[in-house]
Amino acid sequence: MVTPRCVRKCSPCFRRRAPLPGSLGMLRAARGGVRLPLLLPARGGAAPAPAPAPRLPPQLPPQRCLQRRLLQQAPAVPPAVPPAVGRWLLACSGAVAGAVVLGGVTRLTESGLSMVDWHLVKEMKPPRTQQEWEAEFQKYQQFPEFKILNHDMTLTEFKFIWYMEYSHRMWGRVVGLAYILPAAYFWRKGWLSRPMKGCVLALCGLVCFQGLLGWYMVKSGLEEKPDSYDIPRVSQYRLAAHLGSALVLYSASLWTGLSLVLPRHKLPETHQLLRLRQFAHGTTALIFLTALSGAFVAGLDAGLVYNSFPKMGERWIPDDLLAFSPVLRNIFENPTTVQFDHRILGIASVTAVTALYLFSRKIPLPRRTRMAVTSLLAVACMQVGLGVSTLLLYVPTPLAATHQSGSLALLSMALWLMSELRRVPK
Q1: ∠ CA(232), CA(102), CA(371), 5° rounding?
Q2: pLDDT(84) > 60
Q3: Tens digits of per-residue pLDDT, 245-286?
Q4: I need a surface site. Which of 46, 102, 150, 228 has the fewest CB within 10 A?
Q5: Percent of the chain having pLDDT more than 90?
């Protein structure tokens, strides 16, 4: 059978005929598989009106199609964490700093062993009547600190040291609630991204661990030591662990809060900037180590061994620097060595900060970053002055507490500088 010419040309004036020739099949495939109606004239009459052509779906340009395909295949961008979360973490870091300062005052006033038991809820209610205070005082009299050091203490004096330790413990509970309750609220509201959820869980877990570690530290000072005639005090190792975990909690909260609140600078990734960033990281680690060594100074009362500067007594290196055996014990148990190490670390820290400041002057930096470097140098110089004054004046409590607070301020400035120099993710 011969196909008419009009059919081969796909004229709309003819009816559909089947089967279609190969050329029409190819044409239909080229048009997306749409069948075009082919009409034939009715017998004995005029040709019917042509049927309307079917509407084809709008064809997008190839570039638009590619863009749509890429958008469909691209992974979902995680939602940005609200700035309120960053402000909450900054407030929590301030609460931790208050706990560290209050703990230092408690240690300086020798009040840490006045509460001889630990209860999460029961001890939140302080004694009120005279009988309750006398019962609390009698419990304290059964432990070494009263028998050796405070055997002539009155009830009024006991109330002072008891309230000092009570304030520190209650402040720790406030810090725990400041972390846990807002974290649960932000989690329920869906304001935390997946990485931020892990960070918040780690911070809340560290808060709980910090409380348990505090009681573990206090317990070491309540133990009877028949072979020792030394003043009862907590273990310097446990004190350093307690302070170290508090510094880690403070640093992590402050760093995360600054990362969420402060916008990042788009700094050119030059070789000098990379060296400055590495220098800042090393200086921050040195400042952290210096603050941690202060726990051994406080735990051993090493600030009262040599109260002269820059020499220790009449010598630059004292004779009893390595008096203990084995030699490694001197680093953590010899008061002379502990003070000597703290001096060296403090001098190294201020030297590193000064060198960091001078090196930063050679690099063009934003105004806020320049302010962070200058503040770091100013606080470092202030901290050295406070440390030397505390040593020469035989460790007065107000000055020593200010010196301990200055270590937190110096660490804060170093973390601020690190936040300013952090790399912008691509």
Answers
A1: 130
A2: yes
A3: 999 999 999 999 999 998 888 888 889 999 999 999 999 999
A4: 46
A5: 70
State residue 53's pLDDT score.
Answer: 55
> Is 60 exceeded by the pLDDT of residue 62?
no
The DSSP code for 316 is S
What does the block give as tokens for 415? 């973390």
Q: How many CB atoms lie within 10 A of CB 223?
A: 11
Tokens at 368, concatenated: 């806020």
Is the distance from CB of 232 to CB of 149 less than 8 angstroms?
A: yes
Average pLDDT in the chain: 85
| Helix ranges, 262-299 (H) | 271-299
Instruction: Report residue 184 as tokens.
Output: 């649960």
CA dist., res. 145 & res. 142, Å (int)? 9
DSSP-assigned states of every residue in 373-417: HHHHHHHHHHHHHHHHHHHHTT--HHHHHHHHHHHHHHHHHHHHH
Could you give the CA distance from residue 38 to residue 71 in angstroms, rounded to a whole number? 41
User: What tokens appear for 14 in the block?
Assistant: 């003819």
CA 294 to chain centre: 21
Q: What is the CA radius of gyration of the chain?
A: 37
Name 193's Cβ contacts closer than 8 Å, sequence gap at least 6.
Answer: 78, 79, 80, 81
